[in-house]
Amino acid sequence: MKKWLMILLAIVITSFGVILLKHANIVTGGTAGLSLSIAYFFSLPFGVTFFLINIPFYIFSMMRMGWNFTFTTIISVSLLSLVTGIDYFLPAFSVSVWVGAIVGGFIIGVGLSLLFMNGSSLGGANILALFLQKRWNIDPGKTTFAFDFIVVMTGFYTVGLVRGLASILSIAVIARVISYFKNEIAKRGTDAAAKEKEKNLKAPTKQHIPVAE
């Protein structure tokens, strides 16, 4: 129960950061950033776009990260899509480009780190980052930044040069925050794997009882 409460808190925190970026009219990386770019360009709801784009990554997650992680990721993505929907009920407001990049990036970084610590993600590059950390102990912040940088570069056409640079700043802030928590993320992941292994070992096995003839 505590795990799901922490995931819900992480989603609320991340949603607030995404809303700040949207009102600063800048993009971020990963599937969230790609969804924001598409939402700007086609005037589509962020939540729906974000959910649909993540579907291919669920397949990779099930193959490489296991069903439990994939399930919590699907729930997290669905919750983020729902929570960010509150933006449609908020009064119109704008956020300074650079304030949005720094504050929004910091908030998203904290939210993502909290998700990672509790065995979940927001799909896309998050799954890749955690997989590479688990397999080769690669800093998830660096993986996130590399993937996000490519996504943000594709968003320059949508938001323009200044906001594109602000977008790069936002993903740098996100990556720095995640890197700060990388040891705790790895530790939580190792502990979760150990508990799951212990649980499987303790699970009762069915014994074959011979039937007398």
From TrEMBL:
Recorded topology in the membrane = Multi-pass membrane protein
| Name of the protein in question | YitT family protein
Signal sequence residues: none
Q: Which residues form a coiled coil?
A: none
Q: Where in the cell is it found?
A: Cell membrane
Which keywords annotate this record?
Cell membrane, Membrane, Transmembrane, Transmembrane helix
List the top taxonomic levels of the source.
Bacteria, Bacillati, Bacillota, Bacilli, Bacillales
- Tell me the InterPro entries matching this sequence: UPF0750_membrane (IPR051461), YitT (IPR003740)
| Transmembrane domains' residue ranges | 39-60, 67-86, 98-131, 143-159
| Main location (coarse class) | membrane
